[in-house]
Amino acid sequence: MSGTPCENVVGESLCSHSCDVWKSFPEDKLLADLKIESYIGIPLNDSSNNPLGILLAMHDKPINDFADASLTFPLFADAVGAEMERQRYDAQLQWETEMVNASRDIVMAINDIRDFKSILNFVLKRLCQFMGWPVGHLYLREDVSTSMVPLASGI
Asked: 85 CB contacts (<8 Å, ≥6 apart)?
């Protein structure tokens, strides 16, 4: 982000440039390619004030008055930051729920399956399914003196 208007936003508050942005930041090729004249940006933070990103707007024409944007951008940034945080929590909750379900499936299977190799085969297949991996990504070394043997079926 060095050499870009975003560099001035990180760790700061609202940052705006009313004209000649592409000339003020010659290292930023995108600004020059698009002939960006005006820029406004504000950090996005979660509820603990940890950085999540930057909310920004650019225009190919100068903007002389950022008064309205200076009032509304912090509101948008708060809303976007809260939504990003909510989505992270939802994703974490979904992952934890799937982990609980996978663990339950494994425990129930262990109660029904009697031989060790079948139990291990089921556990490996279920772990691959949970992780979204092809079955062949988990292996068991039956003997350290031999090569690895795919234990889960379907490889």
From this structure: 46, 47, 52
Are 139 and 149 spatial neighbours (Cβ–Cβ below 8 Å)?
yes
**Gap between the terminal Cα atoms of the chain:** 44
Q: What backbone torsions phi and psi does residue 119 show, to the nearest 5 degrees?
A: -60, -50
Is the pTM here over 0.85, yes or no? Answer: no
The separation between CA 41 and the C-alpha centre of its own chain, rounded to angstroms, equals 21
Tens-place pLDDT, residues 8-57? 677 678 888 889 888 988 888 999 999 999 999 999 999 998 989 889 99
Query: What are the chain's domains?
Result: 5-89 (3.30.450.40), 113-155 (no CATH)
